[in-house]
């Protein structure tokens, strides 16, 4: 167990260092001067130079990389060029939008997918099954930003029930949740379609196993058997996909938050690239890479919870 | 769930009672959010839109007609040689943090803006200041190195705002100024809230008690927000195609005006083929402004023929200097040695007006024998490739600074790549001129010179397309500067 | 497995037939657009902008008065080209790396697989944005950005499948007969994993079209005057109030192309490997 953890930790650190190097080099060759962007086209060259010095952009690359890494090790993410505030604070205030959005989207995904998947499996090869399969095929084929535009068209433009974009802030109370409804559905659609198909296959697989027949023989109804025994045993592939999907969701927010102009992490990174807020880009990319590794780890832990046999196997 | 319904009921009740009393708040919609809230640190126009005039004050300000008006200074005199500006400050001016304003604040602010390590976006405005004197707390004397007829306008910009040294460093997140409004809240990504300042020197000035600037970047989202009444005023609506709908609705007034933003098809005068005036003139004959204006601004932009805002009394109409004439354009290209046409690229930055006019103007140039390749660039790349490296043939960008005709005297180091001694002489003369009639004449000559030389192919003046609640008064039709004069706004019943 | 048998098995798959029809529609639209479009897709006619659908403009006109139907037709070329080239980059490089890994094993395999893992740890869209930010937006650069992310997919699949084949008895027989790494790979491994690769390539073609649409939507893909479905969607967003249908056509076109390819892939998989379709 200890060596397993140590190996995991080493892989984690290696990924982070590799990511930090790659992103640093990428940003080195990225054309554009953050100082010029901040001061605009009427700025005097020496003002731009002074700002470059103030931001530390005039230092040699190796020094800047080491300074940045030293900061990361101390937990100091640095100061955003554009906003002049600490990157940690910036990410924090964006996460309070993105995290709830991703969680709502993930819950929607899970609810829709498990219901549809189990339903389709239980109605295997009937109209209901075909209906679900057709719907999920469509769901996978629809670009999520197009679905988002369609949602805006229907619920914001024609019906006027929900805001077309923007986020009023949590201090407005639960009303703020309204702004997350459409984006969450837009994010959930594709993921739910994929997950529903995985669930269906997994459930069908388990349904063929002996213990299901035994349970049925013991007098449990079909529905009882499905939810009590089959689903639990089908969860391994489902959880694997969910782990991947949660990573996908956070990436999906880059486009969806742009469609809805939500001040979340996805929009922050897109804007930071455009505004050459290099320190923010670097930090967020490393954090995203860290997140993928952490989610993979959590998925592994979940396997162990779902299936105790795996605990000893590892 | 119960908590939710209760708070909803309370909110409804509150808005109902608020509606009974006369309205004294306003929600103003705007497209871009400022990255920071300090105009001396960042050039973003959105900072001026919210804070200049309202929270931060400069010595003078620009009125709706483009003329210089008193700001923080109640009056000023200009010395005989045009090199000494004496400003009088009012007594009892207090910053939002309680600090008193004296002439020392002016000295400190300007020295900060002009210092060697200054990162002020308008730093070059301060290069002309030789000395700053503060004979008493209510008097500032600025001594210039050379007379400049533009100096007063420069002193009106947000970059010349007067700060309190104790709070200056925090202005990027918590602005402190002397204006009729004070900063209340910034909900990043959504809004900035200002409220009437209790310490302002003239308590009767502002009618609106609270102003919310709400950021709605999505053109499609601006319309429902206005229709639902969530926003009272949107001075620059992005979805200009929808303005007719608001014109037909009695709850709204649509106010179309002009801005300070000239939009030329910018030509690189220092690079083949546009280093040849015949090719530049060919481009001028090839463009057809009506289609560009209709396609890029839904018909609301004003056609221009030179670099000068049409709303200004000194404007000279030069839109017929180069009539739309494809044959003439082809002939000029042939004369210049391109009988079979010429390859050029256009690099528009990512603004809707720029991308759209670039697409239309390219199609027009193609008809005249230019083979145009569109290479859109993001803003950072534009600044790097087009502006800094001057590696471009054509581009489109609005020139929103007032009195920026001196761009034509910045020589080959500037991205226009244009240099002309006659132009330099004209500009020098107008800067040294203090007589208004003579200034007008000189600016007329400058406009003609820019058009004659076909430095660029001038397209249109960026319009100000505003939708406002019908009962709002005090709206600026034109915006010679990007400020929102909150103290001038009021509601009628 | 004979060719006739495969075709018959394909045609017994409903997914395959529907998919083939949809893909056929998109391909014919692209081919047709080389010979005929109702109007020139780049002809600007500002006075006739945002016109509703009519006999002359079947899908109406966009904000410059261009014919939307013609733009959709020509736009299909762009989606197909970007998808095809990006997947080809992925297949060629990925398969080569995968085969190399499985033939050499040891540190080569480790290195290839770690690189694949590393690429996966990066959100693809983010890297694509960075790549286009460095190289500038445009068709070629978006192909590159999408292609790079296809490489690890095919590298992993190839290695996995190849390793399974290499463990079989007939490979041992071939080795015993004195065949070298390269010959074994070319004569035995590649033909045996081609089915898996074809299915995956079809699916990734669909994903590449989606990715291209996403990049174009963000303004980083194909540039005007060449029409692209993703950019048409982006431009339509401003006009949702005046011309909502502008947001419908390009999205529907993307959906048809992606749906067709996905169904085709599913059908192919079921036809090529009946065991996999057991649970479907």
Which key terms come to mind for this protein?
heterotrimer; A: 314 residues; mainly alpha; MetI-like fold; 2 domains; globular; C: 280 residues; 10 helices
Q: How would you summarize what this structure contains?
A:
The complex is a heterotrimer of chains A (314), B (493) and C (280). Chain B has 493 residues and is an alpha+beta fold.
Relative helix content of chain A: over 70%
Domain module count of chain A:
2
Low-confidence stretches of chain B: 1-20
Q: How many separate helices of chain B? A: 13
Please characterize this protein's 3D structure.
The complex is a heterotrimer of chains A (314), B (493) and C (280). Chain A has 314 residues and is mostly helical. Chain A is 79% helix and 0% strand. Chain A is globular and about 85 Å long. Chain B has 493 residues and is an alpha+beta fold. Chain B has three domains: 25-30 and 174-257 and 464-491, Periplasmic binding protein-like II (D-Maltodextrin-Binding Protein, domain 2, 3-Layer(aba) Sandwich); 57-165, Alpha-Beta Complex (Dipeptide-binding Protein, domain 1), CATH 3.90.76.10; 262-462, Dipeptide-binding Protein, domain 3, CATH 3.10.105. Chain B has helices spanning 2-20, 45-51, 103-114, 151-154, 219-227, 243-247, 277-286, 289-297, 326-335, 352-367, 379-388, 421-432, 436-452, and strands at residues 25-30, 60-62, 68-70, 75-78, 84-88, 129-136, 139-144, 181-187, 191-196, 210-215, 233-234, 252-267, 302-303, 342-346, 370-374, 394-396, 457-469, 472-473, 490-491. In chain B, helix 7 (277-286) runs antiparallel to helix 9 (326-335) and helix 8 (289-297) runs antiparallel to helix 10 (352-367). Chain B starts with a helix and ends with a strand. In chain B, 51% of the residues are buried. Mean pLDDT of chain B is 90; it is low at 1-20. With 280 residues, chain C is an all-alpha fold. Helices cover 72% and strands 0% of the residues of chain C. Chain C contains ten helices and no strands. Chain C starts with a helix and ends in an 8-residue tail after the last helix. The relative contact order of chain C is 0.16. Classes of the chains: A mainly alpha (314), B alpha+beta (493), C mainly alpha (280). Chains A and B meet through helix 2, helix 3, helix 7 and helix 11 of A and helix 1, helix 5 and helix 11 of B.
